[in-house]
Each structure stands twice: as C-alpha cells, then as structure tokens.
Amino acid sequence: MLWPQAAAPESAAMAQALALTTGLLLLTAVLQLWRRSLSGSTSLLAIQGAALAGLVITVAIAEGAPELFAVALLVLALKAAIIPMLLHRTALKTGGTLETSHRVHPTAGLLWAALLTTVAFLAARPLVSASPGPLTKVAPVGLALVLLGFLVLLTRHQAVSQLVGFVILDNGIATVAFLTSGGVPLIVEIGVMIDVLFVVVILRVLASQMRSVFGATDLDDLTELRD
Fold this sequence. Notes:
Largest sheet: none
Distance between the termini: 67 Å
Shape: globular
Structural class: mainly alpha
Number of domains: 1
Strand content: under 5%
Radius of gyration: 18 Å
Helix content: over 70%
Number of helices: 8
Number of strands: 0
C-alpha cells in the first residue's frame, strides 16, 4: 500500500506547522540565555525536544515518508522526556539548581542570540537559494540552534548548563538534517541519539563526582587545580 502524498507542502496548514515548530525551537534556545534556573533550562529543553519531534512529523507528511514517524517517536521519548529528566535529576542531586555565572549578562545574551540568528540566516542564504522549497526556507533555524548551543557552552559554568548547550547543538544539527534532506536513515538516527544519551549519562556521572569531590559543579573551579 502506497503512503499518500501530502496534498501540497505549501498549504496553509503545512506552513503553520513549520512556523510553529521552528519558532518553538528557536525561542526555547534563545530563552536558555536568559534563564538562570537549571530546572527552567531543562523544562525549556523538553519543550524544544517536543518541537523537534513535531518538526519531524511535519517533514514526514510533507515528504510522504512514514518511517519518519518512528523517528519522531524516538525524538519525543529521548529529547523531550528522558534526557531533560536526567539533567533535571542531575541538577537536584548535585545541588546546582541555579546558574550563577555572570560571564554574559542575560540582556547581553539575548543581543548575542539576535546577532547569531542573523548570521545563521545570512550564512544559509546560498543553501536556501539552491533549493528554495518550503522546508529548506526554514533550515537556517537549525544553524541558529547550533550557534546558540555553542554560545551556551561558552558562557555557562555549571556542568548541567554545559550539557544543555550540548543538547541544543545536537538538536540544531538534527534540524538541519531533517529540513534539508528529509532526515537520515532510521538506524543512523537511532545510533546518533543513543550516542547523545550515553554522553549525557557519562557527564551526569562526572558531575556527581565533581560534587562529591569539590562540593560544587562549577567548571571554573577546575582551573584552580594544580599538580
């Protein structure tokens, strides 16, 4: 039985779905630079994972690719539930429930986010021009997530915040892949997400060890170590 093709990717419903999912992806990444509560950061990460799953469903309908529904369920389970839950529990276990870093003021962080988003859209113009489809037009959002993920990694001190930045970066890479090529084979996507899960689990253990040895999970404290 053939999978029915979407009537028109340019339809109003499809455009609204793309706008909603990519808008949530970008908004949750930007708000990470404003939030100081790690529980709030993990909640935003869960919303971002759900938005990514919604984007995959939208791509599945637009491309007539039913196998992407399985990928969407996997994304929803791992990136909207399991990984945010692990990070939230890590923050509670280590006592690092608040990001105290003032390396970048929240207002300055939002300005940096606006700048990086603009850079992402400008850098992706050749890609959009080469394939001006409805999916490719919003691909710059994925590149913006990658840049914002790097910004979180550079400006946060707490170990959990670093993990949040890493997951945002990975979500950006996945967003670009889904929007520009209709996603990757299911087995490859499963392998990538399991790798991300393993990284989160390993770093969760390391954060717990840092808490037990140093009494905190602020990565700047490690610079004070001497042989």
